[in-house]
Every structure is written in structure tokens, then in C-alpha cells.
Specification:
110 residues; single chain; mainly alpha; 65% helix
Length: 110
């Protein structure tokens, strides 16, 4: 799964879709890590900030991880970070990249 994500990131990077390629590279890094520590999920903030720089309800989603950590140590504690990460990546990858980001990433014509 992680290698597939990395391959898709390379394909998108070659097509010039840098934000989605970067997002898939982070997804691949999280999928390929042997142990997913809680603080690794802080990497999710970077692609979210690139695609949604203004406050929206998706910014409140990480609070769910912290609330579960305060509760009992059942199976929800293990599954919730993966669900939150999957939801983050779905929101980031499905939403079109703002035109102001595309304009900044285009090379200058001389």
C-alpha cells in the first residue's frame, strides 16, 4: 500500500500537481513506517494548511485523537488515528487545489 502511494506521488509530481504529490508522499511515509507514533500525525497539518489555509471544521478533527487518548485503552484508541489520517487524506486529495497555489508553482516564462 505504501509503495503504491509513493508511486502515485511520483506520477503526480511529474504532472506538476505538487500539493497532491506532497500529500501522497506524506501518506506513503506514514504507511511505510514500522511503528506509527502519535506525534507522526502532526505531519498531516502541513498538506491541510496548503489546501485549506482558512479555518474550517476539518481543522477540529485532530481533537478527536486527543480526546480518545484520555479515555480507556480499547480498540478505538488504535483505530481512530488511522481513521483520522484517512479522512484527512481524502479531504485533501479530493478537493481541487486553489488556483493561487497553481499560479505560484508555475515556472516563470522567459
Amino acid at each position: 500500500m505504501g509503495w503504491t502511494l509513493l508511486g502515485l506521488a511520483v506520477i503526480l509530481a511529474r504532472r506538476g500537481d505538487d500539493v497532491r504529490a506532497f500529500t501522497l508522499a506524506i501518506a506513503a511515509a506514514l504507511a511505510l513506517t514500522p511503528i506509527l507514533w502519535w506525534h507522526y500525525l502532526a505531519l498531516l497539518i502541513v498538506p491541510l494548511a496548503l489546501t485549506r489555509p482558512r479555518f474550517s471544521p476539518i481543522w477540529l478533527l485532530p481533537i478527536a485523537i486527543w480526546l480518545v487518548r484520555l479515555g480507556a485503552g480499547d480498540g478505538v484508541e488504535s483505530a481512530l488515528p488511522l481513521l483520522v489520517a484517512a479522512l484527512f487524506f481524502a479531504v485533501i486529495l479530493i478537493r481541487p487545489v486553489p488556483s493561487r497555489l497553481i499560479a505560484r508553482t508555475q515556472p516563470l516564462q522567459s
